[in-house]
Amino acid sequence: MTRVLVIEDEPQIVRALVINLKARKYEVDAAHDGATALQLAAARHPDVVVLDLGLPDMDGVEVIRGLRGWTRVPILVLSARHSSDEKVEALDAGADDYVTKPFGMDELLARLRAAVRRAEPVGPGDDDVTTVETAEFTVDLAAKKVNRGGKDVRLTPTEWHLLEVLVRNGGRLVSQKQLLQEVWGPSYGTETNYLRVYMAQLRRKLEADPSHPKHFITEPGMGYRFEG
């Protein structure tokens, strides 16, 4: 069973999430503040986290950073904050998706399923090419690992999924719309700020000179291309 950690301080939202998730056979833990959430995450090892940014004891972005210090678990952010700067800050800290309150339960559950799916390992035989090597790093598609300088690079599930799509299409232009739909889901297509944030993170983690990338190439107004 998939275990969900709900981090939310509004009791009615917690109750609605718990009822709906349990009805769909998820196991659910809930925390009403950031400190409890970090303890629960370490103890219970959830498969996905649903996080409200407005917590009583700390900002949700701090919780994201705390989790990202040791786990790649998918994080789906809930927030009443509407500014794109705050969304980008949460995504930049390591969140995988963002749902603005008030939200529809069906949409939230669809986003949650997509986040879990992106985090699942690739099975053997899914693709003939399993390893891609560059001068700076090696991508192991089957093991979902990236190695740079002899050390594994920690990527979030969304960072990995974006990398995987680009690497599997090596040398070919992948449009912004295609990337958004493959990585975030079919209802996406115009959220290009997501791509900018995540491409910057991939370059920062993998390029020798992130400001002059050799591997993750931007085709302005069109999309991105991976060069090995």
Automatic annotation (TrEMBL):
<keyword id="KW-0804">Transcription</keyword>
<keyword id="KW-0963">Cytoplasm</keyword>
<feature type="modified residue" description="4-aspartylphosphate">
    <location>
        <position position="52"/>
    </location>
</feature>
<feature type="DNA-binding region" description="OmpR/PhoB-type">
    <location>
        <begin position="129"/>
        <end position="228"/>
    </location>
</feature>
<keyword id="KW-0805">Transcription regulation</keyword>
<dbReference type="GO" id="GO:0000156">
    <property type="term" value="F:phosphorelay response regulator activity"/>
</dbReference>
<dbReference type="InterPro" id="IPR036388">
    <property type="entry name" value="WH-like_DNA-bd_sf"/>
</dbReference>
<dbReference type="Pfam" id="PF00072">
    <property type="entry name" value="Response_reg"/>
</dbReference>
<keyword id="KW-0597">Phosphoprotein</keyword>
<dbReference type="InterPro" id="IPR001867">
    <property type="entry name" value="OmpR/PhoB-type_DNA-bd"/>
</dbReference>
<feature type="domain" description="Response regulatory">
    <location>
        <begin position="3"/>
        <end position="116"/>
    </location>
</feature>
<dbReference type="Pfam" id="PF00486">
    <property type="entry name" value="Trans_reg_C"/>
</dbReference>
<dbReference type="InterPro" id="IPR001789">
    <property type="entry name" value="Sig_transdc_resp-reg_receiver"/>
</dbReference>
<dbReference type="InterPro" id="IPR039420">
    <property type="entry name" value="WalR-like"/>
</dbReference>
<keyword id="KW-0238">DNA-binding</keyword>
<dbReference type="GO" id="GO:0045893">
    <property type="term" value="P:positive regulation of DNA-templated transcription"/>
</dbReference>
<dbReference type="GO" id="GO:0005829">
    <property type="term" value="C:cytosol"/>
</dbReference>
<dbReference type="GO" id="GO:0032993">
    <property type="term" value="C:protein-DNA complex"/>
</dbReference>
<keyword id="KW-0902">Two-component regulatory system</keyword>
<dbReference type="GO" id="GO:0000987">
    <property type="term" value="F:cis-regulatory region sequence-specific DNA binding"/>
</dbReference>
<dbReference type="InterPro" id="IPR011006">
    <property type="entry name" value="CheY-like_superfamily"/>
</dbReference>
<dbReference type="GO" id="GO:0042802">
    <property type="term" value="F:identical protein binding"/>
</dbReference>
<feature type="domain" description="OmpR/PhoB-type">
    <location>
        <begin position="129"/>
        <end position="228"/>
    </location>
</feature>
<protein>
    <recommendedName>
        <fullName>Transcriptional regulatory protein KdpE</fullName>
    </recommendedName>
</protein>
<comment type="function">
    <text>Member of the two-component regulatory system KdpD/KdpE involved in the regulation of the kdp operon. Upon phosphorylation by KdpD, functions as a transcription regulator by direct binding to promoter regions of target genes to positively regulate their expression.</text>
</comment>
